[in-house]
Amino acid sequence: MSWVSLFSGGKDSSWALYRALERGAPVERLVTVHPSGESFMYHVPATELAELAAESIGIPLVDVRPGEFGPAAGDDETTGERGDRELEPLEDALVDLADETGPIDGLTAGAVESSYQTDRIRGMCDRIGAELFAPLWQADPRGLIDAMLDAGFEITVVRVAARGLDESWLGRTLDAAAVRELEALNDDHGVHILGEGGEFETIVTDGPHMDRPIGLEGSPEFDGVRGTFRVTDAWLGTR
Prior knowledge:
By secondary structure, this protein is of the alpha/beta class. The chain folds into two domains: 131 residues, Rossmann fold, CATH 3.40.50.620; 96 residues, putative n-type atp pyrophosphatase, domain 2 (Alpha-Beta Complex), CATH 3.90.1490.10. 34% of the residues lie in helices and 25% in strands. The strands form two sheets. The chain has a five-stranded parallel beta sheet with strand order 3-2-1-4-5, with helices on both faces. A four-stranded antiparallel beta sheet has the order 7-6-9-8. The chain starts with a strand and ends with a strand.
């Protein structure tokens, strides 16, 4: 059997990969989509770090570079049509990979609550004949983040775009104190504890599935509403 993991390097896709490996799934490839602009379907910031993460994990990485998906959907394209269009380069890459390595029997995805993403990924799995493994789907958000931290995940925030998340969060490591703050922000402003819907994005710099941690240098860029931690250097460290 051959499995593939949809992998951005962020906490959700990393957790799906980790859980698949934990149960013995034969994951032979990680697949990272690198949109060059905004995306309805994919994690966008810091995807270039997925290469370092893949090296640390020890699983080969397949890069999918579709370029710009174009402007947000307007009168001539529904949001559903936009999602279908964004999925096409990924599905084409998986079909090409199956031609090269043999049938893909299973695929991991880090979907939590977005039916918009999950329905499309599930349909793609049906078309290529793969089982979908989505261990975060409809799970309790607080339980998920606690499980990630208890397992030893080190998670760095690389983008914020929600009320209450200011410059101080950019480059911050999520820990128990940060989770308590996120709970308060959820109560006050409705910020999702896992950042579902793009309120914040992350990169996993270490975990039990990684042989070496990722070191980062960078600086925050914040416009008063949203911001990004611009990574200027990244490397694999030592234990």
